[in-house]
Write a structure and sequence with these properties.
This protein has seven helices and no strands. By secondary structure, it is mainly alpha-helical. The protein has two domains: 54 residues; 34 residues. The protein is globular.
Length: 123
Amino acid sequence: MTQVPQPLFPRAPAHVAPYVEVLGVELAVEYFLTFGGSVVYLPENPGGRSEVEQLVGAEKLRALRNHDYQLPARCPIPKSWIAQVLAAKGLPVQKIARKLHVSDVSVRRYLNGAPDPRQPSLF
């Protein structure tokens, strides 16, 4: 039986690192794609009814609650990092663009590490 090598994922930015630490890379990406941009309530007593628990499970929900002091109330949308992770998994640029609801030009910029041209230089 031959094992398929796991892709080497890019390091998570600091603002999403607690999520990745608890959920793992692939589940964190799914979490951001599902809840990104919205306020997420993490119930104290998992009962199977919350959307978060249905996605991540009761055990990981408890682990997220243990890190809630590191988590912002509004879930981030780290599109650049997600694009890099999906590219590491072998997804084509067009498919990544559709998943992130951005253009293929934005995805290529995310993958090349080029700065956003709309962002003024500090120097």
